[in-house]
Amino acid sequence: MRTSTRADCAARRHLRRALWVVLCVAAVLAGMGVQSLYTADLAERLAQAQARVNDLDQNLQTLRAQASTHDDVESLRSVMGHGFDGTAARVSAVESGSVAPVVSRVAKSVALIQARYVLIDPPTGRPLRLVLVKGKPQMGADNEPRLTLSGQGPIYMFRSTGTAFVVDAQGTLVTNRHVALPWEQGVAMQAMQSFGVRPMVLELRGFLPGTVEPFAVSVAGVSATHDLALLRGSGAALTAEPLTMSTLPPSPGDAVLVLGYPTGLTALIARADKRFVSGLRQQADMNDQKAADALAQAGLIQPLVSRGIVAQVSAAAVVHDAQTTFGGSGGPVLNLRGEVLAINRAILAGFGGANMGVPVGMASELMQAESEARKKAEQP
User: Which residues are in coiled coils (predicted)?
Assistant: First the structure.
């Protein structure tokens, strides 16, 4: 009897141990299953995030390639014929409240930059022309005009606009490289690669608020590594009050103001009264140069202002959410004291929370390098 009882106890102990082992193994397997599901979910979310980053980067590259190839003549036709579009309307002035004195002071030193250039074949001097069929320009699959070095079509005129701001008493202005050298992007770059042509600048000029005459501009220096350039202005650029460069970087959450000329002449014309616009429309030979002259004579060249906050700061970029669009490239990103924090350089299409600015320290370095190079060149 005792022997049977002992055997039964031993059996029960073995059974309990077996059940314990089974439960432990089940728990481990369940944990592994949960971890596997979590890992798979995490991997999927990481993949989605990486895809979003890749999309944003692609949008940025596309925008930078197209930023300086916008044709203002088409914008003039649209504005004078159909009014202001929704994209530009998002960029509104905030010249009220506590920022009004700052805006009033700094806006006078923010210039509209206009450029006209053609592309020339170096050996022959022939310019690129439009391809005409039955007297009409032919468009390619990319909806851009077809070009040729032969034929009798009109010479193709490249136009661009951008923003710059005065930084010293010698008429130096800071802007983006793609504003100073617009042919390095978009259709012009493609044409240079396809035809071996080179740019010939016909006109590079600036307008400052409160002045009725444009001033001549030349390229004083460009950065080899950043989207930055220095321009040398004459006339009004020599008397404008230089903007102050901040010596301290911004922090995420700081408020910023962005000044510039987004959409080029389009926004300026949209703010004009009907009588002014009607006068432009009645001129059969109206173009973007004449429109800019008329705007200056009427005192209508004023930068648009938008307000936002800093989202991220790195050695390479100041990311902010102040609204802007093409044409605003090269404008100053300011703190509420009116000090320059960055130079606006690009937007991400469809993602308004990530507009990019080049940190102002890089512009200061470029100015120092250009100054030293100029002094060296002036030595006997």
Answer: 39-66
Structure tokens at 86: 């929704």
- Cβ 272 vs Cβ 298: under 8 Å: yes
Contacts 24+ apart (CB under 8 A), 126-133: 126/150, 127/155, 127/156, 127/200, 128/155, 128/156, 128/191, 128/195, 128/197, 129/153, 129/154, 129/155, 129/156, 130/154, 130/156
* pLDDT at res. 72: 40
Euclidean distance between CA atoms 194 and 252, whole angstroms: 44
Q: Are strands 255-260 and 136-137 parallel, antiparallel or unpaired?
A: unpaired
Strand ranges in the chain using DSSP code E only, listed in sequence order? 110-120, 129-130, 132-133, 136-137, 147-148, 158-166, 172-175, 198-207, 215-222, 229-233, 255-260, 304-313, 318-320, 332-334, 340-346, 355-359
Q: Which amino acid appears at position 336 of this protein?
A: L
DSSP type of residue 310 = E
The pair of structure tokens assigned to 88 is 């530009």
Asked if 357 and 333 count as a contact pair (C-beta separation under 8 A), the reply is yes
Q: Tell me the two tokens of residue 199.
A: 């740019």
pLDDT tens figures, 127-173:
999 999 888 889 988 888 999 999 889 999 999 999 999 999 999 99
For 234, the 3-state DSSP assignment is: coil
pLDDT tens-place string over residues 250-296: 999 999 999 999 989 988 998 888 899 989 888 888 889 999 999 99
Calpha distance 177→259 (Å, rounded): 18
Q: Domain residues of the chain, as ranges?
A: 68-378
Distance CA 280, CA 294 (A): 8
CATH of domain 68-378: 2.40.10.120
Which residues, listed in sequence order, are joined to residue 359 by a DSSP beta bridge? 342
**How far is residue 54 from each of residues 59, 60, 197, 311, measured CA to CA in Å?**
9, 10, 33, 19
Distance separating alpha carbons of residues 313 and 231, to the nearest angstrom: 26
DSSP 38: H
